[in-house]
TrEMBL record:
Signal sequence interval, chain numbering: 1-33
Membrane-traversing stretches: none
Record carries keyword Ligase: no
Keyword Signal tagged: yes
Pfam families in alphabetical order: PG_binding_1
InterPro entries for this protein: Peptidoglycan-bd-like (IPR002477), PGBD-like_sf (IPR036365), PGBDSf (IPR036366)
Name of the protein in its database record: Peptidoglycan-binding protein
Domain of life: Bacteria
């Protein structure tokens, strides 16, 4: 017989259940007071309508807690799961499939080398901290990766990773701007925080990197939004 492990209920889930139960009791009490008992369908509909926003808030709370727990999770070749996927999304240049394979290991090694931390291809607290200081990858092409994190409300830190052996420039274009952010030089094989910008939510359109005499452009970019960019 297989063992069944019960996960502890989150605070949000407990609040959801409690409020949903209170709503049912309230409807029953109302029925007893006026003599017009609502149907079970009415009770269920009302319960669902009131509980849905609370359930969504609980899910968001659970997601935030899971993301925070990744910073203390050790990952290595063969690891799988949510924290691997978060690593891949924030690191950039990878398919976020939640599987720590050879591509993820190579990308982690390159990041560690250019960030000037210990290179072992494994992700522990030091690598998580360094990655958090840059934020989330918004775009990558030609060996360059653009990172952003939110310092405070709508105040973003912009960082660039040049994983090539040449000096490079870059530009990130947005649909609501007539000019790109960027045009900052960065030396070979390094990650630098380049500047801060104050911005709201913008749709990204393209990212261009100039590496030596070569130009690379991609339209596979992520948007700028305080809702999507992690805190620094």
């Amino acid at each position: 017989m297989s063992n069944i492990l019960r996960r502890p209920r989150t605070r949000g889930a407990i609040i959801t259940a409690a409020l949903a139960g209170s709503l049912v009791c309230g409807l029953a009490a109302t029925a007893g007071a006026d003599g017009n008992s609502p149907s079970m369908q009415t009770v269920q509909a009302a319960t669902t309508a009131q509980a849905a926003p609370i359930a969504q808030a609980a899910a968001a709370e659970g997601g935030a807690a899971a993301a925070a727990s990744c910073s203390t999770t050790y990952l290595a070749y063969g690891s799988r799961g949510t924290c691997v996927k978060q690593l891949q999304v924030n690191l950039g240049g990878l398919r976020a499939d939640g599987v720590y394979g050879s591509s993820t290991r190579s990308r982690v090694r390159a990041f560690q080398a250019d960030a000037r931390i210990g290179v072992d291809g494994k992700v522990g607290p030091q690598t998580w901290r360094k990655l958090r200081s840059y934020g989330k990858a918004l775009a990558w092409v030609g060996g360059l990766t653009l990172y952003m994190c939110e310092l405070k409300s709508k105040d973003f830190r912009v960082s660039m990773w040049n994983n090539t052996s040449k000096w490079a420039n870059w530009g990130y274009y947005m649909s609501d701007h007539s000019y790109p952010i960027g045009w900052e030089k960065i030396g070979p094989n390094r990650i630098n925080t380049q500047f801060n910008i104050y911005a709201g939510s913008y749709n990204g359109t393209s990212f261009t990197a100039w590496v030596g005499s070569n130009k690379y452009t991609t339209r596979n970019v992520r948007d700028i939004s305080p809702r999507l960019i992690p805190a620094c």
